[in-house]
Each structure stands twice: as C-alpha cells, then as structure tokens.
Amino acid sequence: MPISHWCISAERMLACKGVKFENVYVFYHQKRELIQPTGQDYVPALKWDGKFVAWFDIPEFLERKVKTPSLYPKLEGGLAKVIENWGHAVLEERVWRAVVTDVPPVLHDDHERWVFEEMQTRARGPWHILQARKPEFEKEMAEHLEMVEKMLEGRKWILGEPSVADFGVYGGMSPLLTVGRKAPASLKGVRAWAARIQALGS
User: Fold this and answer.
1) Structural domain boundaries of the chain?
2) What pTM was computed for the model?
3) What does the pLDDT profile of the chain (202 residues) look like in tens digits?
4) SS3 23
C-alpha cells in the first residue's frame, strides 16, 4: 500500500539490508488477499520463508536475519527508535493532513478512491473543509520538515549512518512523495537525504 508510511519504511529497510523482495499491492478497500495468508489486515505484512512477520516486528526481525548493515547504530539504538517513532507518530500526521486530498488520483480504481474519501471524511471531517484548510496544514508540514533539515545538518544520515531513524522519518514524509510532490526546495538537505534513501538497493 504505497500510501502507507509503515509500508514505505519497511520497504526501504529491506533495500538497505540488501534483501530482494516482491511488493504485493493491497487495496485500501479490500484486504481479502492479505487476510488469507496472514490472518490479519494490517500493512506491511512480511512473508519470509513462509513465516508471517507483522508490521511492528519487521525492523527487529530483519536485524536478526541480516546482521549487516545494522539498523541500529552502535550506542545509539535507543535514540534511533525514538526518532523512528517521531517520524511515524508525529511527522506523518502533519504530512498526511497536508496531502490527504491529493491521494485519490494515485489509487488504482474508482471504488478504491470512493472508499478512501468516505473513510477519510468520517475520520477527519468534510472533504471541502480539508481542502480549505490545506494552507494551514501545508505550513505545519513545512515546519516539521524543517526539523528534519536541522537533524541532517552536516551529515548524510540522521545518526551518521543509515538506521531505523532515517526509515521512520522517511516513512513519515513519504505520503508527500507518493502523491508526486517533493520537500520544499529550501530544504536541500532533506531532498538529498530522500534521494539517498530512494537509491538504496538500486
């Protein structure tokens, strides 16, 4: 599900580890093909040698299976987890509110688009209000992306080397990229860092 920050984060972790993988598209409105092999409806869901790994276990599972490169920098594993969580729990919400009304065109069909708009409207309020508040949401998103720019000052990676911190924060900003946009041009560090993450495994 390309609009899922957790999916994008997991995908980039696999790429960082050098693991070859196949993405299987999960429709926003129809999870039957996900439920059958995994017994649940959350994404991402990793199948590894027939074993199902839930989204919240993927980083540690990969760390056990593929030791290097590590997702947890030496002596800074705890900090990496805190920053990863900030990316998913704080940054992503600011990005999502700014781009949610831009998402329907990237979905696969009209049924999926209809369900998406219906569910988002139920959770967040009328669609036209979300569109009217877009400048407010854009401003808040930019302020949080500026925090990421400061994290990256003088370094290529948030903690000096690729880690779950990078993948959590990148996942958090990924809805912006999924709808075909980029970080503001003034955030040169964020743009270069995002390009490095996108290039992993290529």
Assistant:
1) 5-65, 77-199
2) 0.94
3) 999 999 999 999 999 999 999 999 989 888 888 888 888 888 899 999 989 999 899 999 999 999 999 999 987 889 999 999 999 999 999 999 999 999 999 999 999 999 999 999 999 999 999 999 999 999 999 999 999 999 999 999 999 999 999 999 999 999 999 999 999 999 999 999 999 999 998 7
4) coil
Place of tokens 């704080």: 90
* Beta-carbon contacts of residue 116 (< 8 Å; ≥ 6 apart): 28, 29, 103, 104, 107
In CATH, the number for domain 77-199 is 1.20.1050.10
**Which CATH code is given to the segment(s) 5-65?**
3.40.30
- Region for 48 from its dihedrals, namely left if φ exceeds 0, alpha if ψ lies in -120 to 50, beta otherwise: beta
The Cα 10–Cα 24 span in angstroms is 13
Enter the tokens of residue 126.
């009328």
SS3 140: helix
CA–CA distance, 60 with 57 (Å, rounded to integer): 6
Q: Cite the DSSP H helix spans in 56-199.
A: 58-65, 77-86, 92-99, 110-124, 127-132, 134-151, 164-178, 188-199
